[in-house]
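Dear Dr. H.,

I hope your travels went smoothly. While you were away I took the liberty of generating a structure for the chain from your last submission, since the lab meeting agenda had it listed for discussion. I wanted you to have the full record in hand beforehand rather than looking at slides cold. The sequence, exactly as received, is reproduced here:
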Amino acid sequence: EICFYGWKEGAGHKYYGPNNATDLWHVKKVSPQAMIHLTEKPVELAVRSIQYSSLPGQNVLDLFGGSGSTMIACEQTGRRAFLMELDPPYCDVIVKRWEEFTGKKAERIPGPEPKEAAPTEVEAAVEAKV
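The corresponding predicted structure, in token form, is as follows:
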């Protein structure tokens, strides 16, 4: 799978890994029996990526939270994790996994209520024909 890496405009790419690191990493994959998500990644893979590309205290963004491997890796390496996951059951998996790893209780911080979107031109045209 593809993993994107980004940085602030003008900041340039920074590499914090060892000078002898290779492009091919040998990481034991999660056994199918232990998987809690169909595309679950080993935490070690996220740890290595995070350590090579950021410093403790920096932010890490994962737009496909899945099973929460990135969040656990951030806990292990002292980074701040920001995850997004659209599937509510997997949001619960991520929270439970984090709670079990840290021994802490997650706190839900309510955000603003979503605004009702204005109908698009296509929706308006469909409404007009009905």
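Two observations you may find useful: The longest helix spans residues 88-102. The chain has four helices and two strands.

With kind regards,
E. W.
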